[in-house]
Amino acid sequence: MAEKVINCRGMQCPGPIVQLFQATKQAAAGDILVIEATDGGFKRDVQAWCRKTGNELLSLENDAGVLRARIKKA
Questions:
Q1: Is 13 among the catalytic positions?
Q2: Terminal CA-CA length for the chain
Q3: Structural element, H or E, at residue 32
């Protein structure tokens, strides 16, 4: 199982979700994707994306305006 960090700071919607989608295509099942974004809508977007795609949202934190999501690929 690998862990990959995706830096999407400064990107606006739909940039972070597009980057996450691209990264999941390259990842193996069970890999952890950590995505960091500053777009205010990212929290809602990543939760909906995980529900829709079946990937597991392990955590979602806000650290001084940087949203950090840890996602396990299904």
A1: yes
A2: 12
A3: strand 32-37
Rounded to whole angstroms, the Cα distance separating 62 from 1 reads: 25
Sign of the alpha-carbon dihedral angle for 3, 31, 35, 62 = negative
The angle subtended at Cα 37 by Cα 43 and Cα 21, nearest 5°, is: 80
CATH of the domain at 18: 3.30.110.40
pTM of the model: 0.93
Distance of CA 2 to the CA centre of its chain: 15
Residue 22 lies in domain: 3-57
Catalytic residue among 6, 11, 13, 34: 13
Tens digits of residue pLDDT in 10-41: 999 999 999 999 999 999 999 999 999 999 99
Number of domains in the chain: 1
